[in-house]
Amino acid sequence: MRMACARVRVLIWITVLASGSALQALVCSLAAAHTARVRPECIVAMGATGAMVERASAGEAFHIGRYNRTMNLPTESSLDPTAAAAVYRQRRERVLAALRAAGGGVAIVPTAPEVLRNRDADYPYRHDSYFYYLTGFAEPEALLVLDASAPPDAPASILFCRAKNTERETWEGFRYGPEGARDAFGFDAAFPFDELDTHLPGIIADKPALHYALGVSPELDAQVRHWLDAVRARARSGVVAPSAVHDLLPVLDDMRLFKDNHELAVMRRAAQISALAHRRAMAACRPGMREYELEAELLYTFRKYGAQAPAYGSIVAAGANACVLHYPAGNAIARDGDLILIDAACELDGYASDITRTFPANGRFSAAQRELYDIVLAAQQAAIDATRAGVNFEAPHDAAVRVLAQGLLDTGIIGRERFTSVDDVIGQRAYARFYMHRTGHWLGMDVHDCGDYRERAGERGGERGTSADAQGMPPWRTLAPSMTLTIEPGLYIRAADDVPEKYWNIGIRIEDDAVVTAAGCELITRDVPVDADEIEALMRDARARDTAAAAPAASGSA
Predict the structure, then answer these.
(1) Range of the domain at 166
(2) Catalytic residue annotation
(3) What is the mean pLDDT of the chain?
(4) Would you say the pTM of this structure is higher than 0.70?
(5) Which residues of the chain have pLDDT under 50?
């Protein structure tokens, strides 16, 4: 009974931290999973809509892929297996259609290799994003072939994957095997991975072109040359090797840049989990804690609520460390009066989220901290207001820079004796000393997702314009609905003789994830507070709960 009460108290504490109906639904669903009586073999997980679904048994895993040692395999599916397979099949058909329009040929898309950490220990496996986007297949040692020149009675979508192996599965977990993968994921054909060299030369022979990620992997480049040489060796038999090799990534990048409903649903859930982690870290923070203790709160929350891993190395920076843009979480102590900058988020079912918040270690911003914080927040709002379909990618950055430049002038961090107007500050890029990065980036399967930021010059087919701007660069890409990007202005004020001392060593960044819409953008990470007053209220309430919880214990011990 004592353990049950403790569990309920923890769940109530988590629920209090949650705000917003979506996040409350997430927490309530997860709370139900903890308090419900379930059979050991029936572990409960949360679906994309907040409904409770049962985790598959080992036998069912053959069909829906939940029993595997890879860290990136979905903990639960937001689609039923048949619908999920259809999503990936449709993506493969789109690639095949694009290749046929370009004259045909064969595309090759490998997954990522396993990576040795040290001695005989591997890093947790993470698939290649392009491969997963087209397959949904998470096992290592796999390669997708798309034959856009295949005859009607021949397979166009072919997977190579690891063969079934009872002994290896005893050690490493379930493998689909070629037959199982073909049936579960909707490929036309599948073969064992160790038969690549047997089949590939025959598949690419007499095809007009080969399409793959050019120059990305020396190993893949060498393998492709090997297959081409194998075809050329049969020249006396009348067999012809592909006469052209094209980079496949522009085709895939343009597809991945626009998120479908399935992708957006997963990204919203990832954002909710990451927001809950940030709230937990804010609530837990006290002067005297070390950066890695706050990181532990984040990592615990990611895994507790089903995310497979952090989307990137967590940045947890106390005090002056916040002025280091990619500072890793270390062992520095959060001191009374410090700001804490946390840039951290989870990856869920292959999709990244990306959140940054800055908050005071003691729960209250100083006057100087609040002054700069409000400038950054205003800059972010200006960028948000500028993010909508029809504007170019640079518009949010320009809007944020103007607010930051004005703020740097108003605070005296940039002296008016040197720059008479905000236009001077921007024209001479004087702000870049204190704001040296861009205001956003694409977000999706990779935290810095693929896709051109400028219009592509020399694209086959001439689908996009290539007129240059005043600097001779192609124009910035135009935002369109269902693109996803971050909005993350900041200020980083290092100690310097020409900077007012009260601002020294203050680093602030505020980052949210946005989905572009026709009328503006949808922020999917606002379940964690961004307003300074709301941040202080969250931290104040957390301290009050701790004090209230400690009072009965103190009286009982007395």
Answers:
(1) 81-255
(2) 120, 326, 343, 354, 437, 441, 448, 488, 492, 509, 511
(3) 87
(4) yes
(5) 1-23, 29-77, 459-466
